[in-house]
Design brief:
- It is a single chain.
- This protein is an alpha+beta fold.
- The chain has 2 domains: about 80-220, 2-Layer Sandwich (Beta-Lactamase); about 295-530, Histidine kinase-like ATPase, C-terminal domain (Heat Shock Protein 90), CATH 3.30.565.10.
- Helices cover about 50% and strands about 15% of the residues.
- It has helices spanning about 30-35, 40-85, 90-105, 120-125, 140-155, 175-180, 220-270, 285-335, 340-375, 385-395, 420-440, 495-505, and strands spanning about 110, 120, 185-190, 195-205, 210-215, 380-385, 405-410, 415-420, 445-450, 455-460, 510-515, 525-530.
- It has a 5-stranded antiparallel sheet.
- Helix 9 runs parallel beside helix 12 and helix 11 (about 420-440) runs antiparallel to helix 12.
- The longest helix is centred in the middle third of the chain and has 52 residues, at about 220-270.
- It is rod-shaped, with a radius of gyration of 49 Å.
Length: about 525
């Protein structure tokens, strides 16, 4: 598209540029939501809660594993150190060690002989160092449910339940059996009934077949993990709340205007209200605002097209009706007339009307195809100087100028435009036909070409009676024909200039009428086209 064309005398209105939707002058204030595209907003709203939740779950699962790994290492070291301390010690010394270590490390330590019979239990020798509730307390039910939910989310394998055996023998503990067979320390993690963990470590004591079983209830791990999980749950609920509020915000900023557009489009489609205004949403600079303005412009263009089609159909019917009526009158009179001269006149009238109807149908068909054909055409660079020179030479060869000389003054620069060559040729031909038909005998037709940085102007001036100032726009209306008195009636359809303007506007150009600038009698038709941008 060219820049603003500084020729006010031509009184033309240029097409709105495609990027006009991004340059609304009415934008007075900006909000953060209007500076972001809809894609950014939608991605932000939907991904944020998932990132927070997924990151929290992964963090918590790794955090719990880290704490348990530390306690496993501690249990391994405690079992091995205790086994070494008990090896070779007297029974009295073993009991003293069991009481001391169990109390200081909050453990339960049991020692079994080579046959698997319980020999000593720190909880029997001294008061228990911890207790495991038979069921989870009422206040911990929510925490227990949350634990199970998180374990399912991270895919944690289920742990065996911790249960005290009815007969406290070494065979009741699988880790003791493996420790006896492999002579290595074995560690097992179990779930207690109150939701906490129980870590047991079995290790061989000396070489006489004794084994010990250390049991720890790391309540602090459960408390830490539950505290962190509660924090994540609160963050998730907060993210859910924020996501809901942002979704409502999106519903206000997206759904509502879309519904307005849909309702307006439905009313326009139904045609119930001719004056339905499609909202343009000038305050919005995002895709919704662009869609609203594009829909509004499209609706206005469709209405103009419908009005033009209706008006064109009415004009066609009116223009064809007159020659048809004359033709009908002539043919009906032929059977009633015996005079050869009168019959010849009637036949001439009938032939004239047939040619007139044929010309009308041809021009009407051409006018109706222009928009559709140009919308599918691929524009190319056209040299207007060469095009006009070739048209003038071709017309002289075919004697279409009726004895009038055509003076062409090209500009110094290259007259290159983007367009469809045959259609631009049609515009120049129509302008020359119009100038030749209005010019007196032996009067010249003048073509002047002016080139600026981004605009080419071509004026075609005749020496005829001129056009009244109040009729400058009327001459471009379809079927408007103000012909010279010397010209036979019906020689022109009145569509030539209308077709020429349609082609010019389809090329983002203008076609206007004015008086001659030199003060002489006659009229000038001025074609303006945007200069082709140099290829890079």
């Amino acid at each position: 598209m060219p820049n603003t064309h500084e020729e006010p005398a031509r009184g033309s209105t240029r097409k709105e540029e495609p990027n006009a939707l991004r340059d609304d002058p009415g934008e007075a204030r900006w909000r953060w939501s209007r500076r972001l595209s809809l894609t950014s907003r939608i991605l932000f709203v939907n991904i944020l809660p998932l990132v927070l939740l997924g990151g929290g779950i992964i963090y918590l699962d790794s955090y719990r594993k880290q704490l348990l790994d530390e306690r496993f290492k501690l249990a391994l070291v405690e079992a091995q150190i205790t086994a070494e301390a008990l090896a070779g010690a007297t029974n009295q010394r073993q009991e003293a060690l069991l009481i001391q270590i169990g109390k200081e490390q909050r453990l339960r330590i049991r020692v079994y002989d080579d046959e698997g019979t319980l020999e000593a239990d720190s909880w029997t020798l001294a008061p228990p160092t911890f207790s495991i509730a038979a069921t989870s307390p009422e206040e911990d039910q929510f925490a227990l449910t949350l634990d199970r939910l998180f374990d399912r989310l991270v895919g944690a394998p289920p742990l065996p339940d911790y249960r005290e055996p009815t007969t406290d023998q070494a065979d009741a503990w699988p880790e003791l059996a493996r420790a006896r067979e492999e002579s290595l320390t074995q560690i097992v993690l179990r779930d207690a009934s109150d939701g906490t963990h129980v870590i047991t470590a079995a290790a061989p004591v000396g070489l006489d077949g004794e084994t010990l079983l250390i049991m720890r209830n790391p309540v602090d791990i459960t408390e830490r993990v539950r505290s962190a999980r509660t924090t994540v749950a609160l963050v998730f609920l907060l993210a859910l709340l924020v996501s809901t509020l942002l979704s409502l915000f999106l519903a206000q900023t997206i759904v509502r205007p879309l519904r307005q557009l849909v309702q307006a489009a439905v009313r326009v489609r139904q045609g119930r209200d001719r004056q339905v205004e499609v909202p343009r949403l000038p305050d919005r600079r995002d895709e919704i605002g662009m869609l609203a303005r594009a829909t509004s412009d499209m609706t206005q263009a469709l209405r103009m097209r419908i009005d033009a089609v209706e008006s064109f159909a009415a004009d066609v019917a009116h223009e064809i009706k007159n020659p048809l009526a004359s033709l009908r009158s002539a043919t009906e009179s032929l059977g009633k007339v015996d005079d050869p001269k009168l019959k010849a006149q009637l036949l001439e009238i009938a032939n004239h009307d047939v040619r007139r109807i044929d010309r009308l149908v041809t021009e009407i068909s051409e006018a109706s195809r222009i928009d559709a054909e140009l919308s599918r055409a691929t524009f190319e660079q056209v040299d207007l100087k060469s095009l006009i020179t070739n048209i003038i030479g071709s017309r002289e060869d075919r004697a279409q100028n009726k004895g009038h000389e055509i003076h062409f003054e090209p500009c110094a620069r290259d007259g290159l435009v983007m367009g469809e060559p045959s259609r631009l040729e049609r515009v120049i031909t129509n302008l020359l036909d119009n100038a030749v038909s209005f010019s007196p005998d032996d009067a010249a037709v003048e073509i002047e070409m002016e080139c600026s940085e981004d605009w080419i102007s071509i004026s075609v001036c005749d020496s005829g009676p001129g056009i009244a100032a109040d009729r400058y726009e009327q001459v471009f209306q379809r079927f408007h024909s103000l012909r010279p008195d010397s010209e036979d009636f019906g020689q022109h359809s009145g569509l030539g200039l209308a077709i020429a303007r349609s082609i010019a506007e389809a090329h983002d150009g203008t076609l206007t009428a004015s008086a001659r600038t030199d003060g002489a009698s006659g009229a000038c038709l001025m074609l303006g086209l945007p200069m082709a941008k140099p290829s890079r």
